[in-house]
Amino acid sequence: MTSPRVGVVMGSSSDWETMQHAVQILQQFEIPHEARVVSAHRMPDDMFTYAEAAVGRGLKAIIAGAGGAAHLPGMLAAKTVVPVLGVPVASRHLQGVDSLHSIVQMPKGVPVATFAIGQAGAANAALFAVAMLATEDAALSRRLEAFRAQQTAAARAMVVPPPGSV
């Protein structure tokens, strides 16, 4: 088995509904990855171990999804030089706005790239990780270009009903 190049971590198993969209993109591009729960609140020692070992394990990016207080992305970023891509997970009461605010409020020196709330954010974080990896992999770069060309073609093929027809 190939070592993972991207880690997809989340604060709890309930975050999987969102974070699976990152995994689907990584699978589509055949990027070796792992997905696991590493809670900043319930298992901080495991989270620190994960972050501190990331470089030695060959991870090139960590996609971290968290809801509510959303400490996971920032805490990981504080303990590793591997780029952390934060995905706010929609919460029950504030629909993920609390998560978004928590992730983007990292102090100077603790960078976390922050993406949209929910499924789109998870997918875009994975595409960002693919783009990072593609800078050193010409074949992956071509596959990413083809993916984007397919998205453009699909957008051009969309048919909008003429005014008054609906």
Can you offer a commentary on this structure?
The longest helix has 20 residues, at 138-157. The chain is of the alpha/beta class and 166 residues long. Helix 3 (72-79) links the parallel strand 3 (61-67) and strand 4. The protein has a 5-stranded parallel β-sheet, sandwiched between helices. Helix 1 packs parallel to helix 5 (119-134) and helix 5 (119-134) crosses helix 6. It is built from 6 helices and 5 strands; from the N terminus they run βαβαβαβαβαα. Helix content is 45%, strand content 15%. The protein is globular, with a radius of gyration of 17 Å. The model has no long low-confidence stretch (mean pLDDT 93).
- Rounded to the nearest angstrom, the distance between the terminal CA atoms is 53 Å
Q: Determine Rg (CA atoms, Å).
A: 17 Å
Q: How confident is the prediction overall: mean pLDDT?
A: 93
User: Count of helices?
Assistant: 6
Residue ranges: pLDDT <50 for 5 or more in a row?
A: none
Helix percent reads 40-55%
Give the overall silhouette.
globular
What is the topology, as strand order, of the major beta sheet?
2-1-3-4-5
Per DSSP, what share of the residues sits in E-state strands of 2 or more residues? 15-25%
The biggest sheet amounts to:
5 strands, parallel
> SSE order, as H and E?
EHEHEHEHEHH
| Coarse structural class | alpha/beta
The strand count comes to 5
